[in-house]
Amino acid sequence: MFYISYTRGENMDFRKKIGVVVDAGHGGDDPGAISGSLKEKDLTLRAAQYMYKRLQELGVPTSIVRDTDETLTRNERIKRMTDPFGNGTDVIIISNHINAGGGDVSYCD
């Protein structure tokens, strides 16, 4: 489920003030969690592609870390997260993971 809420108004248009980087967790040689024929890397990729497309439709500056099933090193993943909008404070990074143990939320002040 993905939901964006904002207040309409000339001073409230966040779409021109922030960038969103969407990351599909795992990928390529790293399948993530597996349950039967389901692989976490496939589910996170589908979720990330949907989020990327929807954010683009809403006019939000958006980048996607991977849009195919490919293996990324840690440094490649970080570079793709930070390069599109710079390493500024006005960037939201959403890294999709589907963990069997529940959800986690991480943020930095």
TrEMBL record:
Residues 20-100 form the MurNAc-LAA domain. One of its GO terms (molecular function) is N-acetylmuramoyl-L-alanine amidase activity. GO terms for cellular component: outer membrane-bounded periplasmic space. Its EC number is 3.5.1.-. GO terms for biological process: peptidoglycan catabolic process. The keyword Hydrolase applies. SUPFAM superfamilies: Zn-dependent exopeptidases. The keyword Iron does not apply. Keywords: Hydrolase. Signal peptide: none annotated. PANTHER family: N-ACETYLMURAMOYL-L-ALANINE AMIDASE, N-ACETYLMURAMOYL-L-ALANINE AMIDASE AMIC. This is Protein containing Cell wall hydrolase/autolysin, catalytic domain protein. It comes from human gut metagenome. The lineage of its organism: unclassified sequences, metagenomes, organismal metagenomes.
